[in-house]
Design brief:
Keywords: Membrane, Transmembrane, Transmembrane helix
Protein name: UBA domain-containing protein
Number of helices: 20
Membrane topology: Multi-pass membrane protein
Pfam family, one: UBA
Strand order of the largest sheet: 1-2
Subcellular location: Membrane
Oligomer: single chain
Shape: globular
Length: about 350
């Protein structure tokens, strides 16, 4: 989606453009994310507080699956977290990853979760056997339970397709971006247990396989259209919320952090719409994007200055030095190098202002 970066689970942009735009026009309808956020969390609390004696039925024990053929543990042990810390961290991550359901629709989001969930189960067996034969460590009966592997798998499209926007800079080269908190939550979840690193690695491997369409798994592991329609009619009215009013969309958060998050989500939707507009123009012009139409004020201003006062332009000061790192970030979002340079010079090397400038001109 952003330059040469592969797009997750997006098979054909032209066929799915209308459904994606519908998701963008209704950004607050993410029923699957809300269901994964509420139902497993409620069941985890119920098991921990009221039914602790039933937790053994939801333990993720690969040894019991292998030796006693308790196949049902592959389902029960990989849905509900028995550790409340894992429940809390995974719920926060699912809440932040709801952006993918808003982008691509509930069906593709569910297909990615289903594919990574199934693939990670196979990778779990391989990693556990590898640990046993390599180090003599029996980890099959101590794996953490819960819907954790698909959560780790979502870090793959999050890293590939979500642009990195700097929020603050600390200690010289270190900077805080819109993605820093998500990575910190993932690190917290990664270090919450002894063998959760096995689940994390299997989730990342399954996410890479599905995201890169390796072995054509996206054609085998997906949610059928009839099932998507069924759940859309039955569960979507329960977990969907109405679209907020125009007055409360952006800038109405109770804290500065909430307002910044709302602004980031609006900017992400604007970037998506800009990409669709570029693809349409590229198809209409046979593979070439007409940047003169995309940035008319920028071109017109330069031409007018050139024609009105040619001598003053020749005597002008040398152009402002532009950070190559910021140019690379804008190019990752899909803009050309020339337009990125002009926008950064016009905005005095302010990446946020340059991004908005390119989107609006």
């Amino acid at each position: 989606m952003w330059g040469s970066v592969p797009r997750p689970w997006d098979h054909d942009l032209s066929q799915n453009q209308e459904s994606i735009l519908n998701q963008l026009s209704h950004p607050d309808k993410a029923p699957l994310s809300k269901g994964l956020l509420l139902v497993p969390s409620a069941l985890s609390l119920l098991l921990a507080l009221l039914l602790p004696h039933c937790q053994r039925f939801f333990a993720y024990d690969l040894q019991a699956i292998k030796d006693d053929f308790q196949i049902w543990r592959l389902i029960c042990g990989r849905i509900i977290c028995l550790d409340l810390k894992d429940t809390f961290c995974s719920s926060l991550l699912i809440y932040n990853f709801r952006i993918f359901e808003r982008r691509y629709g509930s069906r593709k989001f569910a297909s990615f979760l289903l594919g990574s969930w199934v693939l990670s189960a196979l990778v779990d067996f391989i990693l556990v056997e590898a640990v046993w034969y390599s180090f003599g460590i029996a980890a099959a009966g101590n794996l953490p339970s819960g819907f954790l592997a698909p959560v780790f798998a979502l870090f793959v499209p999050f890293y590939c397709s979500i642009p990195r926007v700097q929020v603050a800079q600390i200690l010289g080269p270190l900077s805080i971006t819109n993605k820093t908190l998500i990575y910190i939550l993932g690190l917290q979840l990664f270090t919450s247990g002894s063998y959760i690193w096995i689940i994390a690695i299997s989730g990342l491997i399954s996410g890479i396989c599905y995201n890169s369409k390796m072995f054509q798994v996206h054609r085998v592991l997906y949610v059928p259209s009839w099932m998507a329609k069924f759940f859309s009619r039955t569960l979507e009215p329960i977990f969907s919320s109405s679209e907020p009013t125009a007055e409360a969309r952006v800038g109405m958060g109770a804290t500065v952090d909430i307002q910044r998050q709302q602004t980031m989500e609006l900017l992400d939707r604007q970037l998506m719409l800009s990409q669709f507009a570029q693809v349409r123009r590229q198809r209409q012009q046979g593979g070439m994007i007409n940047w003169n139409r995309l940035f008319p004020p920028l071109r017109q201003r330069r031409n007018v200055n050139y024609q009105d006062d040619r001598r003053s332009e020749q005597q002008a000061s040398p152009p402002l030095e532009v950070s190559e790192e910021q140019v690379a970030r804008l190019m990752e979002m899909g803009f050309s190098r020339g337009d990125a340079l002009e926008a950064l010079r016009a905005s005095n090397n302010d990446l946020n202002v340059a991004t908005n400038f390119l989107l609006q001109h």
